[in-house]
Amino acid sequence: MNEKNQVNENSKNEQLEQFLVEDEGKALTTNQGLKMSEDEFSLKAGERGPTLMEDFHFREKLTHFDHERIPERVVHARGFAAHGFFELYESMKDFTRAKFLQDPSVKTPVFVRFSTVNGARGSSDTVRDARGFATKFYTEEGNYDLVGNNIPVFFIQDAIKFPDLVHSFKPEPDNDIPQASTAHDTFWDFVANNQESAHMIMWIMSDRAIPRSFRMMEGFGVHTFRFVNDQGKAHFVKFHWKPKLGVHSLVWDESHKLAGIDPDFHRNDLWNAIENGFFPEYELGVQLLREEDEFKLGVDILDATKIWPEEIVPVKIIGKMTLNRNVDNFFAETEQAAFHLGNVVPGVDFTNDPLLQGRLFSYLDTQLIRLGGPNFHEIPINRPVVPFHNNQRDGYHRQTINKGKVNYHRNSLAGNTPSPVPPEKGGYESYQEKVEGRKIRARSDSFKDHFSQATLFWNSMSDVEKRHIIEAFQFELAKVKSESVKQQVVDMFANVNLELARSIAEYIGVNPPASGGSNVTTSSPALSQLNTVFSPETLTVAVIVTKGFNGPDVKYVLDHLVAAGIQPKIISETIGEVSGTNGVNLNAEFTFLTAKSVQFDSVYIVRASSSSPTFNKQIAHFTDEAFSHYKPIGASPGLNQWLERNNIAGQPGVVISENLEQFTKELIDAISQHRFWDRKVI
Questions:
Q1: Which residues cross the membrane (predicted)?
Q2: Does residue 150 form part of some domain?
Q3: Of 311, 238, 61, 243, whose CA–CA distance to 163 is shortest?
């Protein structure tokens, strides 16, 4: 390196060094250097009151966070979406004045975006993560956005901590590793030191965090909202989306392999289902609570880390959403879609949930930077189906051409229009809740129970679901380098269940807790995926065939599979036509080079004498992997010895019969079960 280059490099290093900041051990300040006495709670009118706009620290922190990434979303960056419609089963007039919830004969257009929370746009679909479930209703009163997740609770109770949470689970800032994963030190350090996250962590470590498809996962509004009827009477409400196909998940090994083999697995699944006419359906359910019963559940209903157990507050099913059209352009629609909890219609209102209050600010603020200014509502996917009129003007990307002189209220030159609309004629009026209290940064004592519902969730799981949760904790914490953090996490979850904590401790090599546990013995069966809908519809079966297969028998089986809603996918030695006996031919879409067992829900092996030794080995590997993932396996007559050699004969979910009709029925029944957890897998 010559002297000139050395000088330039030193100068550049000196220039960079003046911007280096060491935060460790320093006092917390705002960006203006003001030392802050509190960074845990937003400023509220009373401990359970609404967040105040004057909270400059909250607004600075959230604004800075919202603008940290361009143009990709900070969270929920990887998404996929579809169009559809919502239809009501029965009028909800007694509870809400929202027009789209009044008339069962009206179909309301919707746009739904599913997403992962953690990873960047280029990450995989099948990572362990919460999934976003955001629905935009294009109603005759304007757009209504129900922006939720596939998990009914959240990590934190107050939105002021949202930047801290996301910073912790995103890749670590020194090396930007790992991508789309929480298996690292900073996330688990956050968990151990913010124990309000305990309930959410139990859900994230469960099978709920690795769904089989977007079509087979629940959606939740997370927060407590309000319904308000024509008489001004309010009910607290929580929203649920119940998939008609039931709630089903991948297994951990399967999700890992899919991330490499088909990182777009969930995208492909949703797109192909709609293209093939298997339209995903979800029923909308609501939990309703009278205002006078606000304090009767034993938990604070404003706490977003808590559920209302369905056995105590039943879910009332009120309508169904059907997704029946894929987008025409991913960027123009899916990527530019802007959701906001503040997009409501008359009859839907908010509560003082401090996480909800913060989201009401943050979502709108985020769109300003991501979509380039205040006119993102004019992008086609975001435009309401009704006209909009106000005095807002100009700004980046303005498309509306407003005529006339007047752009202010009040006025006489335009007859004081556009003018407000009274509530009795459809104008939005906020619910008149009485609010009083001292300005305070604090949290109600009713928010301090962090473990009872985490234990409730654990108690509600089946043995196999508990095993999966333990294994998830073991995997995640085995990746953590800090012994202190690992010990803190184990000690924390001893408050949930001692068996759980000790199983984790033994695996990761830290001290098992000597005491702990919980006195919560109740459970909620609705939380277990074993208590879900089991249906064969839309499930895939890998049909492995070679030349010379028994044409009539295979055709009989395939015809009945299709009639049951199952999708056969043909795998052979080469792609193209595979000839069987009696003039029956099949079209092979895949070979073992282009298809792996993790991409299918079940396997059907057809006997044929023409199989090569190499192909037979590939069949054995394919089937063994499907077997280890507890999937149904069917084999045509004559393959008994082959099944025995591969140690899968006679196991649960392995179907073989000389009687064709019986075999077909048993195979369909097995596929309907999805998994056979009592199988002996080595």
A1: none
A2: yes
A3: 61
Count of CA atoms in the C-beta half-sphere (13 A) of 198:
28
Is residue 315 scored above 90 in pLDDT? yes
Q: What is the pLDDT of residue 6?
A: 47
Q: What is the mean pLDDT of residues 539-566?
A: 96
Computed from CA positions of residues 324, 329, 334, 336, in that sequence, does the dihedral angle turn out positive or negative? negative
Instruction: Give the integer Cα–Cα distance in Å for 141 and 428.
Output: 9
Of 234-243, 335-344, 384-393, 504-513, where does mean pLDDT reach its minimum? 384-393
The yes-or-no verdict on residue 535 having pLDDT over 60 is yes
593 and 488 co-located in one domain? no
Could you tell me which residues are annotated as the binding site for heme? 73, 113, 162, 359, 363, 370
The CATH number assigned to the domain holding 203 equals 2.40.180.10
Contact (CB, 8 A) for 546 and 556: no
Pairing of strands 43-45, 576-579: unpaired
Report the candidate in 364, 410, 372, 408 with the shortest Cα–Cα distance to residue 390.
Answer: 408
Length of the chain: 682
CATH number, domain with residue 639: 3.40.50.880
Q: Provide the pairing of β-strand 602-605 with 540-544.
A: parallel
Q: What does the DSSP 8-state code read for residue 161?
A: G
Closest CA relative to residue 320, chosen from 140, 190, 135, 450: 135
Q: What SS3 class is residue 529?
A: helix
Q: Is residue 232 part of a domain?
A: yes
Return the ∠ at Cα 320 (arms to 316 and 324), rounded to 5°: 160
Residue 526 and residue 547 in one domain: no
pLDDT at 14: 65
Tell me, yes or no, whether 264 and 290 share the same domain: yes
Of 636, 544, 632, give the one whose Cα is nearest residue 588: 544
User: Do 204 and 229 sit in the same domain of this protein?
Assistant: yes
Residue 20: pLDDT band with limits 50, 70, 90 = low
99 and 242 within one domain: yes
108 vs 90: CA distance, rounded Å? 14
Average pLDDT over residues 132-140: 96
pTM above 0.90, yes or no: yes
Average pLDDT, the chain: 93
Catalytic residues: 76, 149
Does residue 283 sit in the same domain as residue 349?
yes
Bridge partners of 622, per DSSP, are: none
Average of per-residue pLDDT across 478-507: 98
Q: Which residues are annotated as a binding site?
A: 73, 113, 162, 359, 363, 370
The pairing of beta strand 567-571 with beta strand 540-544: parallel
Rounded to 10 degrees, what is the CA torsion of 297, 298, 301, 302? Answer: 170
Residue whose C-alpha is closest to residue 454's, from 169, 130, 155, 248: 155
* Alpha helices per DSSP H over 280-340: none
